[in-house]
Amino acid sequence: MRFQAILRLKCSHCCQGAVFRRPFVMHRTCGHCGIVFERERGYFMMSVFVGYVMCFFVVIPVMVGLYLTIRPSMNGYLIGAVVALVLAIPLIFHYARVVWLHLDELMDPRPNPPT
Questions:
Q1: What is the pLDDT of residues 23-55, one digit of tens each?
Q2: Exposed, middle or buried by CB within 10 Å (0-12, 13-18, 19+), for 51?
Q3: Which residue from 31, 32, 26 is spatially nearest to 101, judged by alpha carbons?
Q4: Domain segments of the chain: what residues?
Q5: 22-46 core/surface letters (b: 16 or more CB in 10 A; e: else)
Q6: Distance from C-alpha of 114 to C-alpha of 12, rounded to nearest angstrom
Q7: How many of the other CB atoms lie within 10 Å of CB of 47?
Q8: For 106-115, what is the mean pLDDT?
Q9: What is the helix (H) or strand (E) element at residue 35, kind and residue range?
Q10: Whole-angstrom distance between the N-terminal and C-terminal Cα of the chain?
Q11: pTM to 2 decimal places
Q12: What are phi and psi of 32, to 5 degrees?
């Protein structure tokens, strides 16, 4: 269930409310359960590290694909990596934040917010 919630960019607490209201703009709270997404100032700095790992999983297949097909010069590899990352930035940004929310919820579950 949690994996589906991550794929659908849903709340880490209830797995039903949307995390983003539009590209690159998060809801402050979950529309379904009311949990506040940002626990403290700088909370999403850890999602940067999740994004680094995701970038690795984007760039390595591109590099291997370039090596196996056209074997470009070093500049070709650099251009391939940059193009792949620029195209993946929206996905990496959104999923890094949602994955961090879910990891944090697994490590330190929050109580249900008061209604």
A1: 999 999 999 999 999 999 999 999 999 999 999
A2: buried
A3: 26
A4: 2-107
A5: eeeebeeebeebebebeeeeeebee
A6: 17
A7: 22
A8: 84
A9: none
A10: 24
A11: 0.89
A12: -95, -50
